[in-house]
Amino acid sequence: MSDSSTTSAASSRAGRILGAVVMHLILGSVTLLGILASVGAIGAFRRGDADLATAVICTVVGGVFTAFGLGLYYLHYIDAPARAAREERRAALHPGAPWMLNADWAARKVVDRSSLAVTIFLWIWSAGWCGACAFIWSVNHDKIVAAVRSSWVDAAFAVILPLCGLIGVLCAIGATRTWWRYGASTLRIDTLPGYLGDSFRGVVVVRMPSPVPLEVEIACERRTWHWSRDSKGRRTKKWSTEMVWSETYPIETGRLMRLKDGTTTIPIDLPLPDSQPPCALDEDGAGIQWTLYVRTDYERARATPTQPAPGYNAQFLIPVYARD
Question: Phi/psi of residue 24, each to 5°?
């Protein structure tokens, strides 16, 4: 029995070492490829072998590859071990208190950066799409012009591609305006944790130029995942979130308090049912989670065709547990 356990442990260790070696080779190759692409593009432009547009595009692509390789290396081999060590220290300091393993919950402050993440994604997508269109045009503009003149289908296709890029830019501008208007919302937790059968209390702090009617929804959700294969047979992890229970409450503008620093506080005091499951997420993030949604109540918000109601939206994962 001991020999079998020793063999299994040795095999597992060898597998981890082999995986680490392969990962280092892949990340090193990607980073080196990006550096060579950027340096080669700059050198070709200086020698006169490439025009400015081609050199810029190749340099940007090389920079993306370099950032991708270095970023993954940092996240996997520097940030992840440091985060695991911090979690082990917190677990040793707070036995029997799983909510203290979450750094945001332990600090009683949860920051919602979803609007910023959406804004960054839209700008990256728009820049990539428009850059690809510009690259295709710079390389094949003669063929594109000839195809457009000979076929209306090709002409429509040539219009749709840059139009999609324009729509992406407009969406990115709209998301940027929303983020610039409200910034990041912060939930300051009063009850740590919120116990089932009791209530969850806290306050949301946000930069809100003018108060609007809001609604707050507290939801118990189940996150699951499964492997799925695409048309090429590649496996991808598909996540899904199922609503187990939720309740929505209105928040009148009179309950909002504007502070001297220009921020607005939104009071949160919600009952928690005793018949629902508590937070229980595994290492992959699957299981039961509780989420607090704060958003504009469009049914009560005053809007006109020329001035729509401000679209505020924030969400926070909150600690909800059962008493022992």
Answer: -60, -40
- In angstroms, rounded to a whole number, what is the distance separating the alpha carbons of residues 120 and 168? 12
pLDDT single digits (tens) 263-317: 899 999 999 999 999 999 888 889 999 999 999 887 666 554 555 556 788 999 9
> Which two structure tokens, joined as six digits, stand for 300?
């009560």
On whether the CB atoms of residues 204 and 265 are closer than 8 A, the answer is yes
Q: Nearest-CA neighbor of 262 among 179, 186, 182, 175?
A: 182
Name every residue whose Cβ is closer than 8 Å to that of residue 269 and which is 6 or more positions away in sequence.
Answer: 199, 200, 201
User: 159-175: per-residue pLDDT in tens?
Assistant: 888 888 888 888 888 88
Q: With a threshold of 0.90, does the pTM exceed it? A: no
Of 242, 240, 245, 241, whose CA–CA distance to 196 is shortest?
Answer: 245
- State how far the Cα of 124 lies from the Cα of 127, in Å rounded to an integer: 5
Taking CA atoms, 133 is separated from 139, 147, 158, 227, in Å, by 10, 16, 9, 33
Q: Which residues contact 13 (CB under 8 A, 6 or more apart)?
A: none
Instruction: Determine contact, residues 31/65, Cβ cutoff 8 Å.
Output: yes
Q: What angle do CA 266, 185, 244 make, to 5 degrees?
A: 80
Cβ–Cβ under 8 Å, residues 207 and 262: yes
**Which residues, in sequence order, are CB contacts of 163 under 8 Å at separation 6+?**
none
CB atoms within 10 A of CB 8: 10
Instruction: Name the percent of the chain in helix, strand, coil, to the closest 5.
Output: 50, 25, 25
**Cα dihedral across residues 138, 143, 145, 147: positive or negative:** negative
Alpha-carbon span 2 to 254, nearest angstrom: 69
